[in-house]
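Task card 7
Instruction: Convert sequence to structure tokens.
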Amino acid sequence: MGKTYAVVDIETTGHSSKNGDRMMQFAVVFVRDWQVVDRFTTFIHPERSIPLFIQDLTHITEEDIKDAQPFHKHAKEIYAMLEGCVFVAHNTDFDLPFLQAEFKRVGLPHWQGEKIDTVELAKILYPSALSYKLGDLAQELGITLQQAHRADEDALATAELLIACYRKLEKLPAATLAAMHRLSFGAKTAIAQLFFGVLAWKRTQLADEAFMTYGKLAVKKLVPAIKKAQIIAYPNTVEDKEQLLRATWPNFEKRPAQFQMMDEVYEALQQQQEVVIEASTGIGKTLAYLLPAINYAVSHGKQVAISVYTSHLLEQLFTEELPKVEQILGTEVAVAMVKGKRNYIDLRKVDTMLTYTNPSYDETLTLLQVLVWLTETMTGDTTEINVTGGGQQVVNKLCKDQDSKVTKPFDYYHYALEQCAHATIIVTNHAMVLAHTTHSAIFSNVDGWIFDEAHQLIQAAMHRETQLFSYTHSKYIFGQIGNYEDEGVFRALYEASRKHERVSPFLLHETERLFTRMVTQFDDVTNRLAKQALEQFIKKEAKQTVFLEQITMPATDYERVASTMYAWLSRAHEVTKQFRNELVQLNSREQQILANWCYFVEQTEQMLKQWTSLFLTQVPAKAAWLELDRRSVPSSLRIMQYPLEVAPVIQHAMQQLGNCARIFTSGTMTVPKQPTFITEQLGLPATTKMCQLQAPKSYYEGASTFIVTDMPDIQQVSQQAYIEMVAYAVTRTVRATEGRCFVLFTSQQMLRDTVELIQESELLHDYMLFAQGMTSGSRMRILKSFQKFQRAVLFGTNSFWEGVDVPGDALAAVIVVRLPFSAPEAPLFKAQANRLTSQGRNAFYELSLPEAILRFKQGFGRLIRSSQDKGAFIVLDRRIETKAYGQAFLDALPAITVHKVTLTDMVLQLENWYNSNDEK
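Output:
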């Protein structure tokens, strides 16, 4: 009989048993021979009240536990159940320590035994899962979980997840399982025996022909999908379009603006025109350009390329939207997706990293994920893998570079290029398009381009032209390389070289001498740079910025560092060449040493490029500044360089694409009274055709704007007084809507001060508060956490103003604390404004105001994501009413009702509005 797995979940009154939090539900599901064989669950009286937000999360109320026994009444029974079992939980680092603390509190000994964490196991076996939260995994894998955050439901779902992981293991090839077993001893929980058992069985089975082998790796065979599209006439009339769409979707809702956009796109492709289309939320923009694009490409035998900004939209297009259009048109279309070379995995590097001795946990976990992913991926695109922060650094080391020597059929990048050559539709991203000199040949046959999220071409070009120099990152690279007396990469390479006489002793000594000189000169110049920057500080704040032009260091100092860095790199490349002497085979340990050495040489080359761009290249159209914290000098030194305009960069890329149709579309392409604000930044001529398409008024029937008229004027009161009023307004609004609020700030400091004041007041103590920069996790992780709670508030800054979707009842209100003007002291904005002023132009009306209106417009876009949505857009900044420019903000919104009311009246209206909605 096999092992018994005790799959446990507990619900508690909070996260810390040390602070008095207690268990209120315990559940265990027993799995033997990969079947559920028994279950046990009980409520436990926590001997303290249950916080309201915990009741909201778990749906366990005081009524549920009123007759339950305290833990000491159940302890011995629970302890006995777990003896001799493998303890399994979804995050054992919470459940097991909490349970151990409860055992200790009632006088029972420490539980001893093996443990398996299904979070760790799921990360390995489902490396492309969007999230490793239990509810998300259950939904993705089709596991029933009717009520998350109830111990009995969660324990059963975790048991089903454990069984699903085992079944997935059984499907992996023997080569993958063997490599995984070798690595698994470095995992945090006892998965090694699990892997070994499956491996022993797998070796008795026939090899699966779906895989090919590269070194120690099993890789899914890359079999191109051969699709032959049928020519279909474009539906010219409204009736034709309606009939075509209703044939697939009987409940299709006709939207005139969507049909108009289809015609604009089709005409632009036919006439080889350049056109800008602003398509508001609710039009169905993606379908409106995909259908005519595919129709045109198939019927004319041409290629059409679609470029987007975010990886999320790229994947959505490829996996969801394009198949929908294929279904509508009743034909398959050859679609290819391509990104920059660095997005693809290098199998040679993976095979080499498998030989590492004593890999870190991040390396171990990431390699385990990659091994499984390689048996599934048809693209080799590393963005498919969901890795942690540390794991991302490992993936970066495994990405393809210019020197990659992987050959067909194991080169994913070249496979993507081959698919593009035969594709009808090519899907790519803005970054790839802007890398014109490298990739223009790939797109040489493209007849028409559609740029979705076109306004983000500006951001993509900005990112491409930006340089960021970090003192701590540079010192990290130097520290990893080191000299012979250090335990670094150079010492390992030196010893391996001498052992087999791979590299000449003279070259090694010369490389070491130049390294010492390079680091010494680097330290000298950066220390003096930081010292000069400190002398420029004019405020008392610890953190400040100083424009690089204010620093008067001689150019010869910068040149000396660059010269020595270049000399070291020349020697380092010669070392690489001699070490890699192909006449003598490298063993696995030497391959590992060489891979590490090459990685840090490449990082130093990047550092030299940054250094040259920042200090030795005269670029008048760029702004550079230093960021420094006087409390940690020079370690806090960072230097940023941004372009002041990107239109030339974008237009150069467009010219490289040749003569073809170009369609630029987005939900935000214009500003009232300045319709060309974005198109000018894109470098488009003023004569470019522009279409503005708005969703029908009925789409926004569920939205209202409220301007709070009795907020103080921020210019007339202290910052603290304004924050106090903001905190009061937010708490009253949140209670009126019962949570589900976004609160948008323009300043991280004001956000922090407001949240801290609300927390201290405890006025929202029974709500979950999520705050960007205060709550740990990425933007998307914070958003997902917010969506799990009914009584929740999300406080965000810049990145939450756009690109965040919260459809349906999950969002009741968006509160704009201040009109989203850029901070006048923000270095990039200051440099852009100074440049306009020097040209005799008005920086406020030509830069500050239109940028703020665009953000405001995007902020409203968070609220209504479907025609069924209902929500309030609340503005606390009085300037929208008192300043002449205020109306321009309101003009940017759809035609919805605007209420100018006091805070008290607004709260009453919100309460009536949401109460009446709930009753319906």
